[in-house]
Amino acid sequence: DMSIRPLFICHGNLNRSAAAHILCKKILPREKGLITSAGVGKDAGKGRTAKKTRDAIKRVMGLDVGTGVPSSKATAQMMERASIVFYMDPANLKHLMEQFPEHSKKFFNMASLIGEPKIKDPGFSSNPDDADTVVHQVKGALLTWRNAGFLNYKELPKWLSARKKNLQYPS
């Protein structure tokens, strides 16, 4: 199965992974139904959404996303279905490794696509610029992934390291 099935993970599925989910739908329109996002924190999955992130997407991208993506909690079924699992920070990875170790080969640090160690959670900040920064970072990471041809977890690390070395990725 060659379909692209990204799963975007953060703590509560309110800000970062929700933004990635929404923006990925714009960048990858044909694959719409195969994009998923979820949280790995204990408070994920209560169906809430973050106005802060919806407002930032409107400011940065000019997109009205309505009520956004309702928060859901990561499940084994989601992991099974995903062709790649993007996480936002080391704490997310730790939760993923504790909850779904059998899927660890699919886990990929989304921030590495923009040369950053992590995409910071704006949920703990009162500065609206932090939510805007997340939208810019997520957009940049998704565009890099698109430039890489939406590679899966096996191929994307090779592409990134070839890119770092300024080599041509063998097609």
* Alpha carbon gap, first and last residue: 19 Å
> What can be said about the biggest beta sheet?
4 strands, parallel
Number of helices: 6
Mean pLDDT across all residues, rounded?
A: 89
Anisotropy-based shape: globular
Portion in strands? 5-15%
Q: Classify the secondary structure makeup into a structural class.
A: alpha/beta
Question: Which range best describes the helical content: under 10%, 10-25%, 25-40%, 40-55%, 55-70% or over 70%?
Answer: 25-40%
Order of helices and strands: EHEHHEHEHH
Outline the low-pLDDT stretches: none
How many strand elements? 4
Structure in words:
With 171 residues, the protein is α/β, with parallel strands linked by helices. The chain is built from six helices and four strands. It has helices spanning 16-27, 51-61, 76-81, 90-99, 128-147, 156-164, and strands at 6-10, 36-39, 84-87, 107-109. The chain has a four-stranded parallel β-sheet. Strand 1 (6-10), helix 1 (16-27) and strand 2 form a beta-alpha-beta unit. Helix 1 crosses helix 5 (128-147) and helix 2 (51-61) crosses helix 5 (128-147). The mean pLDDT is 89.
List the helices and strands and how they pair.
Blueprint: E1 6-10, H1 16-27, E2 36-39, H2 51-61, H3 76-81, E3 84-87, H4 90-99, E4 107-109, H5 128-147, H6 156-164
Parallel strand pairs: 1-2, 1-3, 3-4
Helix pairs in contact: 1-5, 2-5
Key attributes of the depicted protein:
171 residues; 6 helices; 40% helix; globular
